[in-house]
User: Which sequence fits this backbone?
């Protein structure tokens, strides 16, 4: 492209199933990225319920999933149109939309039969918005033997630069780490559940979509025996590259840890809060013990109780002081980092630049990610 910069839109609706983030990004010729505007839209109750039910086996799945993909595409298109109106732009002003879709299945451990599926109808999204859509980012990496996830570390490596050893902790439904040493290779991996189990538990017991600022968790007490059972899950023992999702962590998984014992529901919520913080810090201390600064992004960065717990627990895992802050330190709203990442991934596809990191995903080499659906 000959322009000094181009405009892209990144769309993200993560495993928390809380809604859609649409981010307008300005991207320069070398991939330098900044957020110009954003719109967030909650899922309606029907779509959220359908997407949640598709995480588990059920009847007539193919029809239900295709209908859900169409509904999600229409919701994406409506959010894009809201963003265009807010930013006073036309579809012709946008180079492309980067759309991840909603992960329904993620099975990266089956060798040549591994697969991942994100429900979406990119052709419908392109039709409704009049903008090229880049989607299906994970498949190419998986075809090369990788996990197809996490996808954001390549963007993190470009966006977050520091003279220190830093790490990025994205806490969405799943938590993942990007390790950015002063020298050496960038690495990253999923480190465990983020908000997903906490959201599912409070929805089951109180009907709320999430535990705002961890208030309910703070009413309970951590159950150390239960926490130890959770941390004994084989996922935490795996060496990177590794990825996870609802296939591994869900309410049935939690019920298996609870067993027949009686637990106060608020104590379980408190223990899940500790699980998210403990598993992330333990992984960070094991794989990057010299980390000096931890930058938190994603919805979890807005959970005050979780941020405070990360600060407290960091003292037990690191010999040196670990500074814990959010991506606001770098001028990026924590809620917008993933949306920006998918705008950047769309840019990389358009520019024919590889956007996976083999050290992160385990792929055989760099690959151009995504498929284009022209408007």
Assistant:
């Amino acid at each position: 492209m000959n322009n000094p910069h181009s405009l892209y839109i990144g769309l993200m609706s993560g495993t928390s199933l809380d809604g859609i983030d649409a981010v307008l990004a300005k991207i320069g010729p070398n991939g330098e990225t900044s957020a110009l505007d954003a719109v967030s839209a909650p899922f309606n109750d029907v779509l959220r319920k359908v997407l949640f039910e598709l995480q588990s086996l059920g009847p007539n799945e193919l029809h239900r999933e295709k209908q859900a993909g169409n509904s999600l595409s229409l919701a994406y298109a409506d959010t894009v149109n809201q963003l265009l109106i807010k930013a006073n732009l036309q579809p012709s002003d946008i180079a492309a939309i980067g759309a991840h879709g909603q992960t329904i299945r993620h099975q990266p451990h089956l060798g040549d039969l591994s697969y991942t599926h994100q429900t979406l109808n990119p052709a419908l999204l392109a039709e409704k918005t009049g903008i090229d859509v880049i989607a299906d980012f994970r498949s190419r990496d998986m075809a090369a033997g990788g996990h197809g996830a996490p996808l954001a570390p390549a963007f993190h490596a470009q966006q977050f630069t520091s003279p220190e050893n830093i790490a990025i902790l994205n806490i969405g439904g799943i938590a993942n780490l990007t390790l950015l040493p002063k020298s050496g290779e960038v690495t990253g991996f999923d480190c465990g559940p983020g908000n997903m189990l906490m959201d599912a538990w409070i929805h089951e017991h109180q009907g709320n979509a999430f535990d705002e600022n961890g208030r309910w968790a703070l009413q309970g007490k951590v159950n150390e025996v239960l926490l130890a059972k959770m941390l004994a899950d084989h996922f935490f023992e795996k060496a990177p590259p590794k990825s996870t999702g609802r296939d591994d962590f869900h309410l049935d998984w939690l019920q298996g840890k609870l067993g027949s014992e009686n637990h106060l529901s608020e104590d379980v919520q408190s223990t899940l809060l500790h699980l998210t913080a403990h598993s992330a810090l333990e992984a960070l201390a094991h794989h990057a013990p010299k980390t000096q600064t931890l930058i938190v992004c994603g919805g979890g960065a807005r959970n005050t109780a979780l941020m405070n717990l990360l600060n407290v627990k960091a003292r037990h895992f690191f010999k040196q002081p670990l500074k814990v802050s959010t991506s606001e330190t770098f001028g990026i709203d924590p809620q917008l980092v993933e949306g920006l990442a998918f705008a950047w991934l769309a840019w990389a596809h358009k520019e024919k630049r590889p956007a996976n990191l083999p050290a992160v995903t385990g792929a055989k080499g760099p690959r151009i990610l995504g498929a284009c659906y022209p408007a």
Notes: The first strand starts at residue 6 and ends at 12.
